[in-house]
Write a structure and sequence with these properties.
Helices cover about 60% and strands about 10% of the residues. By secondary structure, the chain is mainly α. The protein has a domain at about 75-270. The protein is rod-shaped. It starts with a helix and ends with a strand.
């Protein structure tokens, strides 16, 4: 009986030890399972981070590829054609506006004081003097007004084409400095694409307001010519004088904006510039043409009164190198006035 009882006790103890061993094994396996689950969650989190990083880098690479692979969307010949069209439109509008003054008859004039405004300073002393002298002549002479209108429209369009933010010239200096820095530190392929993308973003932000700003620049310049010529702009408005030219001036504004987009965004392999000649510079037949065809050595060195037709040039990538002239600007000489 005792032997049977001892055997049963030993068997129970042995079973209990086995149970404890099994429980210990289960606990160990549970710990290992928890560890594996934690590692799995960490691996999943790492995988998700890797996927997100891969997606970000892929997007960056696509952007870089688009940036690096952007090619010119038009040719230099295309831009030359656009510049010629703008020059022709400016000439026609200026001639039409000047000739139409005769139809107004004896419209009231004003003895205005020529203040040093930006427009007046841009016209220069030669053209201002010609406009003032014209008032004292008995016969009607539209030519000084026509030349002044051509010069002022060239100036207005130049400000638009060169500007980064249409109608807000105060920002241009900042962008010019940044772009000059990019050109100095990067090659043409990088700097040209930076310029194109920056101008594109600015243009998209400006939207339709850009055209309104451009038209204000154009009309302000035109009004300044008539003011200097002694006309009352108030009376000209009453006579609806400008109404008949509004559509033509609008066409000049839109064509100018197209050229700004073409030069600023469409061409990245080179830097194209609408070239003009400063008032008072000496005439150089190798770099400019005379509007009235007074070419030759006799005209060399004569003072330039203003630019009547845009030229087009390519800025050299190397500092100190001269630009490549694609089309020479046309100027009127002081002696012709």
């Amino acid at each position: 009986m005792v032997a049977t009882t001892n055997a049963a006790i030993m068997k129970a103890e042995k079973a209990e030890r086995r149970n404890r061993d099994v429980e210990a094994q289960l606990e160990q396996q549970s710990k290992e399972l928890r560890t594996l689950l934690n590692q799995l969650r960490q691996s999943e989190a790492l995988r998700q981070q890797t996927l997100e990083l891969l997606e970000t880098k892929t997007s960056e690479l696509r952007g870089a590829q688009a940036f690096m692979s952007k090619e010119d969307s038009l040719s230099g010949a295309d831009v030359i054609g656009m510049v010629k069209s703008l020059n022709a439109e400016i000439l026609q509008v200026a001639a039409f506006m000047a000739d139409s003054l005769e139809d107004l008859g004896k419209i009231q004039t004003e003895d205005v004081e020529i203040t040093p405004t930006k427009s007046a300073a841009g016209l220069g002393k030669y053209i201002i003097r010609a406009l003032r002298f014209r008032q004292n002549r008995a016969e009607f002479d539209p030519m000084p007004v026509q030349i002044a209108l051509q010069v002022c429209l060239i100036q207005a369009c130049k400000r638009v084409v060169d500007g980064w933010v249409p109608g807000v010239p105060g920002h241009d200096l900042i962008f010019d400095r940044v772009y000059a820095r990019v050109r100095d530190t990067e090659g043409q392929s990088i700097s040209g694409r930076w310029r194109a993308m920056t101008r594109s973003q600015i243009r998209n932000m400006a939207g339709e307001d850009a055209h309104t700003s451009i038209m204000k620049i154009v009309t302000d310049e035109v009004f300044e010519v008539f003011r200097i010529a002694g006309y009352s702009t108030r009376d000209l408005k009453k006579n609806s004088y400008f109404d008949k030219f509004r559509e033509r001036l609008d066409a000049i504004g839109r064509l100018t904006y197209r050229i700004q987009e073409a030069i600023g965004e469409g061409l990245t392999s080179e830097d194209f510039h609408m070239s003009v000649v400063g008032v008072g510079e000496g005439f150089d037949p190798e770099e400019m043409d005379d509007t009235f065809l007074q070419s030759g050595s006799a005209a060399r060195g004569e003072r330039v009164a203003g630019t009547t037709d845009f030229g087009l040039s390519i800025q050299a990538s190397k500092k100190g190198s001269p630009p490549t002239i694609l089309k020479k600007p046309k100027v009127v000489l002081a002696s012709a006035l």
